[in-house]
Amino acid sequence: MSKESAIKIQNLTKHFGKNESLVKVIENASFEIKKGELVALIAPSGAGKTTLLMMIGCVQEPTSGEIWLGEEKVYDNKWTAKDTRKIRREKIGFIFQSHYLIPFLNIMENITLLPQTNGVSEKAAKQKAMELLEYLEIADKAYSMSSQLSGGQNQRVAIARALANNPEIILADEPTAALDAQRSISVIKMLKKIAIEQNVAIITVTHDDRILPYFDRIMKIENRGIVFHKLDEEQNEII
Amino acid sequence: MINLAKRDIEHTLSKFIVTAMGVGMLLGIVLIMIGVYRGLIFEAEILLNDINADLWIVQENTMGPFAESSRVYEDFKNIIYVMNGIDKSEAITFQNIQLPHYEKPVRVVAVGYDVFGSINPINPERIIAGRDLKNDRYEIVVTDKTGFKVDEKIKLGRNLYTVVGVTHNTTSNSGDPLVYLSLKDAQELQFLYSNKEIQNNEARGVKNSESYMVNAIIATVKNGFDINEVAKDIKKWQHKSVYTAEQQKEILTKNVVEKSAKQIGLFTVILVVVSTIIIALIIYTMTLEKMKEISIMKLMGLPNSLIVSMIVKETLLLGIFAFIFGNIFSHLTYDKFPKRIVLEISDAWMLFGIIVIASILASFVGVKKVISADPAAAIGG
Question: Which burial class, exposed, middle or buried, applies to B163 when counting CB atoms under 10 A from its CB (0-12, 13-18, 19+)?
């Protein structure tokens, strides 16, 4: 049985500016990512990785095309919903280059803030947060402040926060950029485990070649379109 | 639901408290300024209330001794006394004098009255040591602010006066301490010139008869008589200006204190505006410091209302804490000021209302920043 689709993009186009200052970033890109998949998004700087991520994340409006998140068509040449924040709140988890935890909230509050905004009771949100912290092996830090945790621990908390609202999709923007090689691999292995066990589609923007072998697929922006590559595992090079 | 404002304040509590204390001191000054105004009104009315006269008869076409120079003959009190409706009438003088003190001279307002007369301007409740005047020569009752004690001697003019009583809370409308002298002594101090000057005046043909002058005649009206009607009669037949106690209060509060009140009012408004601007700048800076977190919250999908309520609550809490500190500051310092400061609860509540409104207005700058925050700023470092 084939896996369910998590993200489906059809003829997605994004242009900036008009007339002489027109910049074409993405043109007629189409692809599909299934639930449980861990996909790397690579491209040279300025090629449109972040723009693509923001369009999938319903933050930046495309110029044209279609975006499906799960079974819901969220963009059909215009946003189909008035409140794109609600889509983000309910369907998407975000992980950033740095952990970007809210410094005045403790770890538990950072994780439970979004579910509580979605109407989940405090008790249920805390229970789920504790499960996630145990899953990520940092349950003992539940009531610490982020300033008391190491970089790697904070990034795990950021992952727990991204998972707290049971998202169908996680969009990670260079989540290992601030970590050393060992911790980077540890985080990617964790994301791989999450993708499979939580049945979540994860797109990760990365520049780090060392972690590429851990991805299911590698998606590259080439000539304003999307191309999927395989990895030559012996050479650790994209072919 | 997590209270973001409370958590943020707890996280930077010391910074928040120091900021609130700073703004609080400004608000404390606002309260003190209002207190100065209340003090002016209070002091302006002390003497009037203590004398408790129904009518003030003063030199024609003048507003009386509190507003301008006024001279009437002392014996005019007898003419007033026999008028229809008058119960008591007495002569009274007011003059600024300097009491020689071992530290530095003390500027006071001396009230001269007939010690054996029917109207005593000394409120017995205000005497905290000694007694009021019993002899019509060389006795003086002082207020405690002058620093003199009972039985001390004070040299005034050519004579030595004995302090026979000390009062508390007696000040003139200008805020200077009050002292009380017999009418004879007061007239001598005010109108009696030195022997040389008298000789010179006589050589010029000027007769030195001013020692029978006083500044006003005060009178009370018998029960059953209309004070305004009695005043009208005196004005009509005696060619004097006559003011009721209420009119005299109005002269003091509107004519004498008005300019000071306007000045204080303007300062108060400026301080409130400055406080509002400072709160707005603080909130703007606090919001700027959180822009990354705000972008992340918006990216994660948190509604604007949640973030805006955090900013508004923080601003309100800053205003409220500043108000509390301002109250503490004003209550700790008000009695250190040389002039009377009257802090009233109603003024504090009024300022509280203004601060709540000012805080809400000040929070707009932070709210505007929140609304314009780009969630995309959270991505891409």
Answer: buried
**CB proximity B301 to A under 8 Å:** yes
Q: Quote the pTM value.
A: 0.75
Q: Is A203 on the interface with B (CB under 8 A)?
A: no
- The DSSP code sequence of B76-143 is HHHHHHTSTTEEEEEEEEEEEEEE--SSS-EEEEEEEE-TTSS---S-GGGEEEE----SSSSEEEEE
Task: Write a three-state SS string for chain A.
Answer: CCCCEEEEEEEEEEEECCHHHCEEEEEEEEEEEECCCEEEEECCCCCCHHHHHHHHCCCCCCCEEEEEECCEEEEECCECCCCHHHHHHHHEEEECCCCCCCCCCEHHHHHHHHHHHCCCCHHHHHHHHHHHHHHCCCHHHCCCEHHHCCHHHHHHHHHHHHHCCCCCEEEEECCCCCCCHHHHHHHHHHHHHHHHHCCCEEEEECCCHHHHHHCCEEEEEECCEEEEECEECCCCEEC
Residues of chain A positioned with their CB less than 8 A from the CB of B2: 105, 109, 112-113, 116
Longest dimension (CA), chain A: 57
And the tokens for A237?
A: 């090079």
Given an 8 Å threshold on Cβ–Cβ distance, is A59 in contact with B299? yes
Residues in Cβ contact with B192 at an 8 Å cutoff, skipping those fewer than 6 apart: B157, B208, B211
pLDDT tens by residue, B328-350: 999 999 989 888 899 999 999 99
3-state secondary structure of B338: coil
CA atoms within 13 A on the CB side of B117: 28
Residues of A within 8 A of B7 (CB-CB) are: 104-105, 109
Q: Give this complex's ipTM.
A: 0.82
Of the candidates A109, A117, A173, the beta carbon closest to that of B306 is on A117
User: B349 φ, ψ to 5°?
Assistant: -65, -40
Chain A residues in contact with B381 by the CB 8 A cut-off are 97-98, 174, 177
pLDDT tens digits along B288-318: 888 888 888 888 888 889 999 999 999 999 9
